[in-house]
Amino acid sequence: LSFPSQTNSKYGGQFSYCLPDFGSSTSSGSFSVGQGSIPASAVFTPLVSNLLYPTFYFVGLNGISVGGERLSIPTAVL
């Protein structure tokens, strides 16, 4: 089961995490759950549910760019 589905009843489906820079030995990440876990200044991508896979969550994609160049991938397959 997904993390949101397992913790929804206890924490109201609210959680936030920030992954550290993989290449840095001095940066750190964070993880918090529950009300107030998402700062007002946070920028986020909403999770999308799918009735065919109710225990999984997805993010909606409009395109993929690498180095500022958009890849030629049809949006129908994203």
TrEMBL record:
Q: Which UniProt keywords apply?
A: Hydrolase, Protease
MF GO annotations: peptidase activity
InterPro entries attached here? Peptidase_aspartic_dom_sf (IPR021109), Plant_Aspart_Prot_A1 (IPR051708)
Source organism per UniProt: Pinus taeda (Loblolly pine)
* Gene3D superfamilies, per the entry: Acid Proteases
Q: Which domain of life is it from?
A: Eukaryota
Task: Tell me yes or no: is DNA-binding among this UniProt entry's keywords.
Answer: no
What is this protein's record name?
Answer: Xylanase inhibitor N-terminal domain-containing protein
Biological process terms in GO annotation? proteolysis
Q: What is the lineage of its organism?
A: Eukaryota, Viridiplantae, Streptophyta, Embryophyta, Tracheophyta
